[in-house]
C-alpha cells in the first residue's frame, strides 16, 4: 500500500463483490466494476457496466401485486477474456488452483492492475498480468491488456474475448423477485478482421446501445457469433518466461449521446480510429493528472489515503464529462445496482464539494433538476398543491421512482415503502442552488433556472403549510424526515408525521432565502418571472409570514424530531445490542419480531442534527430567531446529546453528519464518527451493502468534512468565511479550490496558522473573513494568518 495505491492480496470469494465495487473504473460517462475478466456473473462475481442516466422500466409481480420499477441498466459486458490449455477447462480462481493473486488500484492513473499465478500441475504455472482503464480523456473508450507468461513449460494457450449481451440486472439479492431483463434485440457482427460489434436496446425506454471491440494479438484472431455474444479467439504459442500480450480496446455509445447519427456506427468508427493500448494511455494519464491538480488534497496518514480513494470514486462518477450529460447524482455511484441507480437527496452531500472544484459539473447536475421542474409541478398538482414537489427517488424523467414495497431480508416480508413522503428533498435542491451560486458567482443561473426552481419549491412549502389557530403557527403535516425509521405514528391508519423539525426549519429557510433572491433580481427579470408564474406581492407577503411562523416542536428542553416524538417509548438499547450485536438496521430487527420502530425514540440517522450539518451555528441561530425561537448553545448541545444516544447509524451518512456536528458541539467525540464515515465503504460497515455499490454521498461528504466542516468554510456575500475547529487527530491539512473564477486557490491549516495562496490572474482579490478580522488576498500573493484561539 502507498498513498496512491490500494492493494488487495490473495483471493477470497467472500470478499469478491466488495473488491469489485472498490476497484470499479469509470469516467463520468460509464463505469465498469472491477470483476476478473475470466469470471461470469454468479454468486461470487458481478461484472456490471453502467452508463450514467441509462434507465429502463419494467413491471414485476411481487407479493401478489404488480410493481413497476425503473433501473439503471446493466449494459452488455465488454470485459470477458478467458483462457485455457487446449482441451482443458477454462481457468478461473474458482475452478483452478491459485498460487498467488493480487490486485492493485492505481489512483493517480486510473488503472487497475491484476496479477494471478495459476497452478497447472507438474511444476507448470501460468502467470496472468492485466492492466485495465476506462478512458478519462475519451469517455467512450476502455481498454484491457493481458500478458500471459508460461512458467516451467512452453506450449499453446487458447484465449476467448467476448462482448456479452446476455446480461441482466441481478446484482442485489433482495431485488431478485423483480424482472431484471432490460436488454432486447441483441445482434452481433464483424466490422473488420480484428473488430466485432454488438448492439441492442432497452425493452421499454428504447435506448439503443452499441459496443465495438478490437483485439490485438501476436497470433491470428478469429471470430464467431454465438448470440447474445460476439467472440474473438486466438491460439497463443507461449515460450517459457516470455510474455505474450493480448490487447482489447472497446468503444461504447448509446442513443442518448449527442453529435452521433447511430450508436453502432459511432462505436465501430471510434474503436477503428483509436490508437493502440499504449497510445491511448498517454491522454488518459494526462486527464487524470489534470483532475488531481484541480482537486488537490493534502491530508496526512491513513485518513489521507482513504480520502484520496473517496475522491477517486467521486471523480469516476461525476467528472467533467458529466457536464455534457442529462444526469443526476446516483446515490451508489456507477458502481452497482443498489437503489436501482436512482437520484435521492445525496447531492446535498456531493455538490458542496464539487462547487469549489468542478462548478461546471454542479451546474449540469442542477440542470438535471431544472429539466424535471415541470414534472415536479405536475406531482404537486396531483396532490392538490401548487409549486414543485420533487420526488424522493428520481430517474429518467423525474417522476417518483420510490418503490411501493421493500423487502425485509430478516423476516422475508414485503412491506409498504413510505419514503416518498420525504418532501424535504425539495429543500435539498434549493440549498444546492444557493450554495452553487454563492461558490461560483454564477448570477446568470441564479437569475434564471435557479430562481425558477426556488420559486416553485417555496410555493410548494407555502401551500403545504396549514395554520393552527391554537398554536398561532403554521404546520406541515404528513411527511417523513431524514430518519426513515419513523414513517407513521404508532397504530395510525395513515402514514406520515407532523412538523418534522428538519422539514419545517429548512422550509422556513428556503422561503426566506427565496424572498431575498427574488428581491435581488434585476427588475426586468423579476417582471418576467412574475408574468410567467402569476407571482404577486400578496403571495410573497404570505411566504414571509409563513417563514416566520412555522411550528418547531420541543420536548424536555430539546428540539423534537417531530410533534409527539417525546411521547414515544424508550428503547432498551443495551438489551438489543446484547442480543443482536449490530443493530444498525434496527427497523428490520423490530419488524421481524412483530414490533415496529415507530413506537420508539430511535433514529436510523441524523434527522434534527442535519440542521447542524447544513448551517453554521450562527446561521442556524438566525433561522430560529426568524421563527421567533431562541436556540442558544446549551439547548443545541442538549439536543445533540439527546439524539446521539438514540441513533443506530443505519446509514453511511449518519457517522459523517455526527462527526461534522460534534466537531463544533463536542470536539472530543468527533473523531470517532469521522473515522466511521471514513471506514464506511472500505470496511463495509453496513454489512455487505458496499458490494452492491459504493455510498457516493458519504464519500463526497468526507471530502467536504475536511473542506468546509473542519475549516468552517462558507461562501457568502462574495467572501470566503472561515472559522476553523482543529481536531487533535487532524491538525494539519491543505487543499485547493476554484472560487469565483480563481483557479487553484490553495488553503493550508497547520498549528493555528492559515495560509492562503491565490495564483496569478487578472481577477479581483479574494476577501477572506475570519471571526476576528477580514483580509484581502491579491492574485499572485500568499497570506499567512494567525488563527484566534
UniProtKB/TrEMBL annotation:
Domain spans labelled Glycoside hydrolase family 65 N-terminal: 9-256
GO terms for MF: carbohydrate binding; glycosyltransferase activity; hydrolase activity, hydrolyzing O-glycosyl compounds
Active-site residues, Swiss-Prot/TrEMBL: 484 (proton donor)
Keyword Hydrolase tagged: yes
Ranges of residues in domain Glycoside hydrolase family 65 C-terminal: 713-777
Glycoside hydrolase family 65 central catalytic domain residues: 308-703
Family: Belongs to the glycosyl hydrolase 65 family.
Residues annotated for substrate binding in this entry: 345-346, 604-605
Organism encoding this protein: Streptomyces calvus
Protein name as it appears in the record: Trehalose 6-phosphate phosphorylase
Sorted UniProt keywords: Glycosidase, Glycosyltransferase, Hydrolase, Transferase
GO biological process, one term: carbohydrate metabolic process
Keyword Hydrolase: yes
Amino acid at each position: 500500500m502507498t498513498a496512491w495505491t490500494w492493494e488487495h492480496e490473495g483471493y477470497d470469494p467472500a470478499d469478491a463483490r466488495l473488491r469489485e465495487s472498490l476497484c470499479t473504473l469509470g469516467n463520468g460517462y460509464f463505469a465498469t466494476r472491477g470483476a476478473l475478466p475470466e469470471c461470469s456473473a454468479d454468486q461470487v462475481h458481478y461484472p456490471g457496466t453502467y452508463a450514467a442516466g441509462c434507465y429502463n422500466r419494467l413491471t414485476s409481480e411481487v407479493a401478489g401485486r404488480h410493481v413497476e420499477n425503473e433501473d439503471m441498466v446493466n449494459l452488455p459486458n465488454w470485459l470477458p477474456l478467458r483462457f485455457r490449455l487446449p482441451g482443458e477447462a477454462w481457468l478461473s480462481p474458482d475452478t483452478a488452483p491459485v498460487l498467488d493473486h493480487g490486485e492493485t488500484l492505481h489512483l493517480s492513473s486510473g488503472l487497475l492492475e491484476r496479477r494471478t499465478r495459476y497452478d497447472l500441475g507438474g511444476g507448470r504455472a501460468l502467470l496472468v498480468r492485466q492492466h485495465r482503464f476506462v478512458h478519462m480523456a475519451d469517455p467512450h473508450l476502455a481498454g484491457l491488456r493481458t500478458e500471459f507468461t508460461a512458467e516451467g513449460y512452453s506450449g499453446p494457450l487458447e484465449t476467448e474475448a467476448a462482448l456479452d449481451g446476455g446480461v441482466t440486472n441481478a446484482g442485489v439479492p433482495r431485488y431478485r423477485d423483480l424482472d431484471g431483463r432490460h436488454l432486447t434485440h441483441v445482434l452481433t457482427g464483424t466490422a473488420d478482421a480484428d473488430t466485432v460489434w454488438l448492439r441492442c436496446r432497452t425493452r421499454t425506454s428504447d435506448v439503443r446501445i452499441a459496443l465495438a471491440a478490437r483485439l490485438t494479438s501476436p497470433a491470428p484472431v478469429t471470430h464467431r457469433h454465438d448470440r447474445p455474444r460476439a467472440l474473438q479467439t486466438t491460439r497463443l504459442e507461449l515460450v517459457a518466461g516470455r510474455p505474450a500480450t493480448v490487447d482489447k480496446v472497446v468503444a461504447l455509445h448509446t442513443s442518448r449521446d449527442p453529435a452521433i447519427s447511430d450508436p453502432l456506427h459511432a462505436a465501430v468508427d471510434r474503436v477503428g480510429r483509436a490508437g493502440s493500448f499504449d497510445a491511448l494511455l498517454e491522454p488518459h494519464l494526462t486527464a487524470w493528472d489534470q483532475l488531481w491538480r484541480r482537486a488537490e488534497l493534502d491530508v496526512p496518514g491513513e485518513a489521507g489515503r482513504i480520502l484520496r480513494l473517496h475522491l477517486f470514486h467521486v471523480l469516476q462518477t461525476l467528472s467533467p464529462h458529466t457536464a455534457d450529460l442529462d444526469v443526476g447524482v446516483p446515490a451508489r455511484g456507477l458502481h452497482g445496482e443498489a437503489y436501482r441507480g436512482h437520484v435521492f437527496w445525496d447531492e446535498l452531500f456531493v455538490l458542496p464539494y464539487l462547487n469549489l472544484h468542478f462548478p461546471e459539473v454542479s451546474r449540469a447536475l442542477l440542470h438535471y433538476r431544472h429539466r424535471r421542474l415541470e414534472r415536479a409541478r405536475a406531482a404537486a398538482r396531483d396532490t392538490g398543491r401548487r409549486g414543485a414537489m420533487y420526488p424522493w427517488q428520481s430517474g429518467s424523467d423525474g417522476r417518483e421512482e420510490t418503490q411501493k414495497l421493500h423487502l425485509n431480508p430478516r423476516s422475508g416480508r414485503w412491506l409498504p415503502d413510505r419514503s416518498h413522503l420525504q418532501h424535504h428533498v425539495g429543500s435539498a435542491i434549493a440549498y444546492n442552488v444557493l450554495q452553487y451560486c454563492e461558490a461560483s458567482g454564477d448570477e446568470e443561473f441564479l437569475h434564471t433556472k435557479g430562481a425558477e426552481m426556488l420559486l416553485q419549491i417555496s410555493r410548494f412549502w407555502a401551500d403545504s403549510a396549514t395554520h393552527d389557530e391554537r398554536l398561532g403557527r403554521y404546520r406541515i403535516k404528513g411527511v417523513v424526515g431524514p430518519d426513515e425509521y419513523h414513517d407513521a405514528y404508532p397504530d395510525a391508519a395513515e402514514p406520515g408525521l407532523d412538523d418534522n423539525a428538519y422539514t419545517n426549519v429548512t422550509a422556513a429557510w428556503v422561503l426566506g432565502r427565496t424572498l431575498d433572491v427574488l428581491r435581488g433580481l434585476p427588475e426586468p427579470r423579476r417582471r418576467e418571472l412574475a408574468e410567467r408564474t402569476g407571482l404577486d406581492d400578496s403571495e410573497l407577503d404570505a411566504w414571509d409570514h409563513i417563514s416566520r411562523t412555522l411550528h418547531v416542536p420541543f420536548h424536555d428542553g430539546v428540539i423534537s424530531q417531530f410533534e409527539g416524538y417525546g411521547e414515544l417509548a424508550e428503547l432498551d438499547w443495551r438489551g438489543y445490542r446484547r442480543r443482536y450485536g449490530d443493530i444498525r438496521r434496527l427497523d428490520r430487527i423490530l419488524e421481524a419480531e412483530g414490533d415496529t420502530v415507530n413506537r420508539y425514540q430511535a433514529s436510523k440517522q441524523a434527522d434534527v442534527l442535519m440542521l447542524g450539518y447544513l448551517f453554521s451555528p450562527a446561521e442556524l441561530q438566525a433561522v430560529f430567531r426568524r421563527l421567533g425561537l431562541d436556540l442558544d448553545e446549551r439547548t443545541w448541545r442538549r439536543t445533540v446529546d439527546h439524539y446521539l444516544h438514540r441513533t443506530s447509524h443505519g446509514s453511511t451518512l449518519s457517522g459523517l453528519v455526527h462527526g461534522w456536528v460534534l466537531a463544533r458541539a463536542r470536539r472530543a467525540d468527533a473523531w470517532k464518527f469521522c473515522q466511521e464515515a471514513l471506514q464506511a465503504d472500505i470496511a463495509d460497515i453496513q454489512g455487505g451493502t458496499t458490494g452492491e455499490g459504493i455510498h457516493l454521498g458519504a464519500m463526497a461528504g468526507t471530502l467536504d468534512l475536511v473542506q468546509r466542516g473542519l475549516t468552517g468554510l462558507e461562501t457568502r456575500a462574495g467572501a470566503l468565511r472561515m472559522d476553523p475547529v482543529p481536531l487533535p487527530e487532524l491538525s494539519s491539512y491543505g487543499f485547493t479550490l476554484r472560487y469565483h473564477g480563481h483557479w487553484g486557490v490553495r488553503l493550508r491549516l497547520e498549528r493555528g496558522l492559515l495560509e492562503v495562496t491565490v495564483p496569478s490572474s487578472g481577477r479581483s482579490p479574494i476577501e477572506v473573513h475570519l471571526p476576528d478580522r477580514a483580509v484581502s488576498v491579491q492574485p499572485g500573493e500568499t497570506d499567512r494568518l494567525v488563527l484566534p484561539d
